[in-house]
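Hi L., both proteins are below.
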Amino acid sequence: MDNWIEALPKADLHLHLDGCVKPGTLLALAEARGYPLPADRPGDLLPYMQVEADCDSLKTYLDKFNFVLPLLQDAEALIRIAEEAVEQAAASNCLYIEVRFAPALHTDGGLSVDGAIQAATEGLRRGEAAYGVVARLIVICMRHHDEATNLSVVRAAVARHGQGVVAVDLAGDEASHPAERFRGTFAVAREAGIPITIHAGEAAGPFNVREAILSLGAVRIGHGIRLREDSELLELVRERQIPLELCPTSNIQTKAIADWDDYPIRSYYDAGLYLTVNTDNPTVSGTNMTRECEALASRYGFSRSELAALMRGALLAAFVEPPVKEALLGRFDEQVGRLLTDETRED
């Protein structure tokens, strides 16, 4: 592992809360709640939480979330895993993270949508205080939920916009639920002025990216890896400099892309697309931000300056409040400047 990459300050804009639960934490939650699990040691539990190398689709990938969700149905659990998400990001020297989750998936134990949001933001605040990583929340609508449920989610997010919540999102089974079905839901978000990012162009084609931008009001795209299938749309995304939230390891595992050799991140970068690199689901994918950066360097020849540019670009694309963003950019530039100075001295 390149020590420079480990030391590089980072930002993770696409990180799912229920995709980064630690096996040991799940065991502790289960024990406290009297919930049976198929293993009683973290290492033995990991296969139930992490995809295998032969994961065949996004749907198979998403099945891993059903294993942890029953234990994430109360405020105490959400606070804990949100705080631990910040702790894990700190280990990769992240300065900033945007953690996303679907509150409507966490109401089986009596929490309201707003109560789930409140718990997640409280956990992020505790993590920020403990580990020094600025953390904000993106609230997700799910593709398989009805419009009434998703509208309640958007309205709850709008009510807490600026109180730890920075944006709304749409996620889930993209192939079965095209983006056009959610125009009404995201019209409410646009009217309220809350930023929108949409999962699109991952398990379905670039038509969902087009719909997300032109009809739903997305100012960032989650994944968007299949843009190359529509050269006109790719050019539009390049011209508008709409950031793509790429998640290399996850994109390979979900079969959005066949394999590492086919992954177009180098060609996208060289074509001038606005790219960010993210973890998606550290536990499910077995990754972290340092590993994602290392993959870019080793597999695609990204230089140190290019990796630094990707991370700085992510901070610029962040939904965080402008004064906080300015301070983050200052911290980033200071740390990278120190890294470059140290490198020069070593040479």
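That was the first. Here is the second:
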Amino acid sequence: MLKRSMLLAAASLITCALAAPAAHAEWPERPIHFIVGFGPGGANDLIARFAAEGVGKELKQTVVVENRPGAGAVIGTAYVAHAQPDGYTFLVGAASTITNSLLLKDLPYKDSDLVPVGMIAVAPSTIVVNPSVPASNMKEFVAWAKAQNGKATWSTAGNGSTPEFVAEMISEATGVKFNIIPYKSGGASVHGVMNNEVSATSEASIVVVPQIKAGALKAVATTYIKRISSYPSIPTTAEQGYPTVQIGHWAGLYAPAGTPQPVIEKMNAALQAALRNPEVTNKLTATGIEPAPGSVADFVTFTKSERQRLSDLAANIAKTKK
């Protein structure tokens, strides 16, 4: 009887060993996919491409950026949440990753279906208007928007995206109400302002600074904690008397729950190494993006804090959609 039990135990150990993904030590053996929940041209997409290039060099493997836009990044997020947790599919998440469950009911995934891997970078957000709008600073913009009596239009990169939170922050600080126009990406949202389909938005420095320099957009303020490194002439909202209008376009990496911890740690290490590589950091900072390397635990702490900070704003946004 004892011999039979020992044989069964040995067989069980062998079965577990065979069932375990033995390839972890060799990971990655094939191309990795970074999923972006927004269309091409926005901050999330552009940061993803910088990160993919750097991580690919560190891991000596191709990293493919794949756009799956729609529903405020819900489509792309759900795709990763239900993907095989084998270390070959990751989400380049944004603020919507932690706020969609505060804003939307019946999401096709649970927050627990994703696990944080690491922060990538923060792109300072900039409030911009079409050149036809008679405002060049926050005081003038608020006065102009109030005079529109609720008809001032504001574009976003989709429901729950960072620009929508900026609009809500402005509303809470000033009483201005905007007519929110959602687009599928930050790039499309900005083009809406440039084409005068929409009057204003707030989008990442990497997307808007080239258009500001070209005269296609007019800058009002940056909503980040400091001025944009590549374009320091734009004052912050805090400098102009609106300290509560503060947020950045952050991007971070997530994996499907169940992804082996050694893979998560190895990806985090590759990401940190890439973000400390002068070749990568110079490309990021030249566009005003701030690299944000850190451990898995650092990213967990950040996302928890940010979710708590934005929860009341999310509740107000949700009410307006009812």
